[in-house]
Amino acid sequence: MSLTDREYSFVTKPIDVALGLPNRAYTDNSFLSSEYEKVFGCNWIGIAFEQDIAESGDMFPVIAAGQPLLVVRGQDNQVRVFHNVCRHRGAKLLDKPCSKKRHIVCPYHAWSYSLEGILKSTPNFSGPKNHNHPTLEEGTQNLVEVRSGIWNHVVMVNLSGDSIPLRDWTARLDEHWAAFDIANMAPGGGMAFDFDSNWKLVLENYLESYHLPKVHPVLNSFSPLEDHELVVDEIFMGQLSLNYRPSDGGNVLPRFPNLPEDRQATGEYLLLFPSLMVSVTPDHYRVTIVTPISAGVTHQRWQFYFVGSESCEEQYADARESVVTRVASYTKEDIEILERLQAGRSSSGYDGGRFSPFHEITTHHFQKLVARS
């Protein structure tokens, strides 16, 4: 199910006269199924973190666009992503992460595959102790690989296989963040949440600072609404905080070296369309993978990275924890309002709403990208 011509016209009008997406875009699972194909499937999306498969033989199952996938680091140290189903009867291969494995073995009939997805054995397929058959011609029953790559510590996939190369997809954001040496950062804490809200509401909330005074009064006290600016590019958008305060007392975390003056006290909170929330500040980088479970339920998993191996030392433990705890508190404040927003999408008294032409340029841009997908 997709937008009607009338709904599309309203969303894509100039911001001062546009209406937001209709309620069913947030409540209808058939609408989400269409998004799985047209929004998530055709673009590059984040599904896991590089440290989830840190060593050869590590495997990490995920759900992406409603499909079970398996992230694997092979014996050749290459990261690959496969559809997490056996080619025999379609059984899901893996339910939980595992480490230091040499094969992928189906729990149903024990078909086994190499970590590179090659079918290796089909026990008793043609009868007891008769394991082979002409229909199992070499190469025809290997695991189905998904186009994948790694960007800034995130495992990315393109399910349709026909998007532009990943390096081109991220090129403009890479240029925008050229001052930050994100490749040499160290992981340092994360968290996951499930909550009753459509995935788009999560991102629309993230893209604007208009809600700070009411929803995040503590945050607004030192990073006030008036100290925020918006940024909109082709496939990334978000907000800048021009008054970022790195650490609360104790040892100040290591910072990116040689930052330009205009980045010394700036936090950038951006969305790489369609669903990867990425933020960078002078002392840390954070990634949030947003995964719709259903039209009304979203899974959000985020990971922090700090500057250089030095930041992992014990002397900075309290400072790292302070950053993670602070963001967790803001996330919990957001979840309460997100669930209220989802409840409101069941009301016939709501028509999509108006956009603030000052505060919600990013939200409108996001909705237009969804509508045009």
From TrEMBL:
Which GO molecular function annotation, any one, does this entry have? 2 iron, 2 sulfur cluster binding
Q: What is the required cofactor set for this protein?
A: Fe cation
What's in the keyword line of the UniProt record? 2Fe-2S, Iron, Iron-sulfur, Metal-binding, Oxidoreductase
Q: Which residues form the Rieske domain?
A: 44-144
The entry's protein name is Rieske domain-containing protein
Tell me which species this is from.
marine metagenome
